[in-house]
Amino acid sequence: MANTAPVPARKSRQQRARDGEAGFTLIEMLVVITIIGLIMALVGPRVLNYLSDSKVKAAKIQIESFKSALDLFYLDTGRYPSSSEGLDALVHSASNITAWNGPYLKGGTVPEDPWGHAYTYRSPGEHGTYDIISLGSDGQQGGTGDAADITSWKK
Predict the structure, then answer these.
(1) Burial of 74 (0-12, 13-18, 19+ CB in 10 A)
(2) Residue 13 has pLDDT above 70, yes or no
(3) Type and span of the H or E element at 43
(4) How far is Cα 75 from Cα 88, in angstroms, rounded to an integer?
(5) Is the whole model's pTM more than 0.70, yes or no?
(6) Strand order, beta sheet including 131-134
(7) Is 130 helix (H, G, I), strand (E, B) or coil?
(8) Which of 152, 118, 115 is closest to 136 using CA atoms?
(9) Over 60: is that where the pLDDT of 46 sits?
(10) pLDDT at residue 1 above 60?
(11) Prior bond to 6 cis, omega within 30?
């Protein structure tokens, strides 16, 4: 009896060469990962810098909003909230204030600064009728960069 199994066809030289190119080599993958790492090393710090700059700008905008709300409070009541009443007087009426026409801030709460700390409010202030202060990212007085204090009297 003769062997009737099919004889495998010989592969051409081009087909054999293509079989070795079916995927990426380890070296090609490492080169791509290295390039991506270099790009992230160059772009990453800039993105983080934009993030910290935006938080500083957000704190300045919130302080301006407080200033407007405090002016409305003053027009209604004839005075600014005391230090003991704090910024909370802009959203909750104290029993001793008869002309309160608030809330003067949307949302019914006094927002925290962009770093999650409470704003400091003093009336009378050392730099004006009142002082509003965000202690920056570190929550401590002083500092530089995004840890610097943001105040109602400095632009």
Answers:
(1) middle
(2) no
(3) helix 26-77
(4) 17
(5) no
(6) 120-122, 131-134, 150-151
(7) coil
(8) 115
(9) yes
(10) no
(11) no
